[in-house]
Amino acid sequence: MACPSPANDSRSARVLLIRHAESRPSRQVLEPDWPLSPAGVVQSQELAGALEPLGIAALYSSPYRRAIATLEPFATLSSMPIGIEPDLRERKLTDGFHPDHRSVARKAWEDLAFALPGCETGLACRRRVRRVVDRLAAKHPGERIALASHGNAIALYLGSLDGRFGFDEWSAMQNPDVFAVDYATLGSPVRADAFAL
User: Fold this and answer.
1) What's the domain range around 59?
2) Is residue 101 part of a domain?
3) Number of domains in the chain
4) pTM for the full model?
5) Tens digits of per-residue pLDDT, 23-55?
6) pLDDT surpasses 60 at 192
7) Could you tell me if residue 3 is inside a domain?
8) CA dist 126 to 5, 27, 76, Å?
9) 68-71 long-range contacts, Cβ below 8 Å, gap at least 24?
10) CATH code at position 104
């Protein structure tokens, strides 16, 4: 499998943003602790094989169990540690299970300043993810790095680079999807379709 080539600038970083593999949500388990589903375990193993030839220099993950587990097979294969970055966590859209989650999500995408009580606005999530991705890209000039995060968080970040990335694009994301962003110019994100499993 081929990843889109990095920009010609030898100091540009290529950031691979990985939406975690399929998880197993449960009302009895706090969301940050949701494990991968059996299919997600297989996806994470397939992802490791796809990432292996890419010359990845560093791995970072949200602290959520499903994101870390998505990178673990590749981390084992490459003998590379996974750095935990709290700001790669998922956006808190609702407080626990919400009976009309999709409608809340749509409203939150239509109005990035909207948040249910005790939850996070799209603008706040976008800012924190942008800060951490910018910082990690600056830390790895000329290198390729992989970051495991979550659908809403990644989509909001991508929307900060390309305003056309919105609710429909977020809805179409799969587990795991990989998006590549070159940090030479911070242009529009490039979807790495070769990695969609």
Assistant:
1) 14-89+96-181
2) yes
3) 1
4) 0.88
5) 998 888 888 999 999 999 999 999 999 999 999
6) no
7) no
8) 26, 27, 31
9) 68/148, 69/20, 69/21, 69/35, 69/36, 69/40, 69/41, 69/44, 70/18, 70/20, 70/21, 70/36, 70/40, 70/43, 70/44, 70/148, 70/176, 71/18, 71/44, 71/146, 71/148
10) 3.40.50.1240
